[in-house]
Amino acid sequence: MSRDDIAAFEANYTTPSMLSAETGAHLNTIRAVLQSEGVQPFRPNGLDVGPVYLRNAVEPVVALLKSQEGK
């Protein structure tokens, strides 16, 4: 994959590991918040591609994680 391909992926999709790196939150915390908020992994045509999420679907979770940082 080229750098442009990677940048395009990261602009539209994310993974719990990527969210951990971006927010500093523990991976288990991210997984728990995604589950509690009902955010489902991206499943193109029902295909399981692993823990890949649409970035716009996790924006509220990222905001929640960032708000918890201050506590």
Could you explain how this protein is built, in words?
With 71 residues, this protein is mainly alpha-helical. It has one domain (3-69): Multidrug-efflux Transporter Regulator, Chain: A, Domain 2 (Orthogonal Bundle), CATH 1.10.1660. Helices cover 61% and strands 6% of the residues. It is built from four helices and two strands; from the N terminus they run H-E-H-H-E-H. The protein has helices at 3-12, 16-23, 27-36, 55-69, and strands at residues 13-14, 53-54. The protein has a two-stranded antiparallel ribbon with strand order 1-2. The radius of gyration is 12 Å and the shape is globular. The relative contact order is 0.20. The mean pLDDT is 90.
